[in-house]
Amino acid sequence: MKNFTPAVAAVLALGMVFSGPAFAAPKDNPKSEKVQKVKENQQSNKGQTQQLKSIDKQLDKIEEKITHYQEKLQNLYKPIEDNVDVSEEEPIREDNSDSIDNDDTNEVDEADSSIDEEAGEVEEELNEYPGYAGKFNALQNRLDAVNNRLDSLAAKGTAAEEWQSRYGRIELLSTQINEVLTTLKELQNDVQEKVDNDESAEELEPTKSEVPASKEWNIKFSQKLNEKTLSNLDIIVLDTAENLIETSISYSEETKSITIKPAQPYKAGETYTLYIGKDISGENGLKLKNSVKMTFSIE
Description:
Blueprint: H1 6-18, H2 30-75, H3 105-126, H4 132-155, H5 160-196, E1 202-211, E2 217-220, E3 235-239, E4 247-252, E5 257-262, E6 271-276, E7 292-298
Parallel strand pairs: 1-7
Antiparallel strand pairs: 2-5, 3-6, 4-5, 6-7
């Protein structure tokens, strides 16, 4: 080992000291951490706000559809000339663009677009069910999904006032659906009993097969009908599970014919029964000699 003079040893020792890192590790900046935490909270609050907007939009759509189909069911008992079209106008949205910063406009538009798409999914899902019971069960399933989303938000610490009122709304809508399903079941049982016990009904044979999913049936009569005696319960379509299918019925005095068309396409491969009751009267007051049954299957 080399021997160094005290002076050289001192220089080497000094050099070892200065050969270390030029700067010490920065200390944590409490202010920077606080700013970051505020930003994270803002982002979290923003996400929760969008989630709540989405939930409200879906609940609005579900409520709208419940009201729509409730009115449709009530119209089944009325003569077709008294039936009113159930409108589905979109509510007018207020323009709040002046209150939105320019930098956030695109982000907000994209979020609103996503929320509208989720509400549109409710409409698409209902179109998969030609029968009334299927529609109301689908609405209940959608309500359950919204309830689960609300559970998730509540678990993340969302303010109680934000989710309590929405839980109440979900419960109210669910009660409405259950009441309608109970009434609908009673109605369908009455209709099915009427069809099954109608021994005078003329059954058209054989079953019509490979019928298009959007088939419109045109029934011609030998004389003009009294529209006041014609309701949606005089001409009905049932599936194999005895569910009442949503249809629209129109009468042409000029051609003395009735047109029956499904509100949504029939399901492929399914079989349905078209029933025409004998309570329909002509202008002369005479009723049909007998009712008619016809089965058809979808291609």
